[in-house]
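Have a think about this chain, C-alpha cells included, and walk me through the fold.
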Amino acid sequence: MDQAEVIEVGSKAMWVTIQLGLPILGVSLVVGLMVSVFQAVTQLQEPTLTFIPKILAVIVVIVVAGPWMLNTLLDFTIDLWSGIPDIGKD
C-alpha cells in the first residue's frame, strides 16, 4: 500500500464522516439558533431551555436519516474491507 492509497482511504473516511455528521450538526445548529432568537425576543433567559428542543431534533434526524447514514457507513466499510486483499500487490 503506497502513500497515494493511504491518502485516498483517509480522504474517503473524512468525506463519510462529514456526510454522517453534517445532518445532525446542521439541524442542531438551526434549532439552537431558533431557540436563541425566541429567548431574545421573549427575554426568557433559561439556560436549560435550549437542550430539550436540540435533543428532540437530533433524535428526529437520527430516526429519519438513520437508514441512509447506516447504508453510507456500511458501503464505506464494505469497500474498505474488500480492498484488504489488494494491499501489498503492485
Summary: The chain has two helices and no strands. The mean pLDDT is 91. The radius of gyration is 20 Å. Residues 3-42 form the longest helix (40 residues).
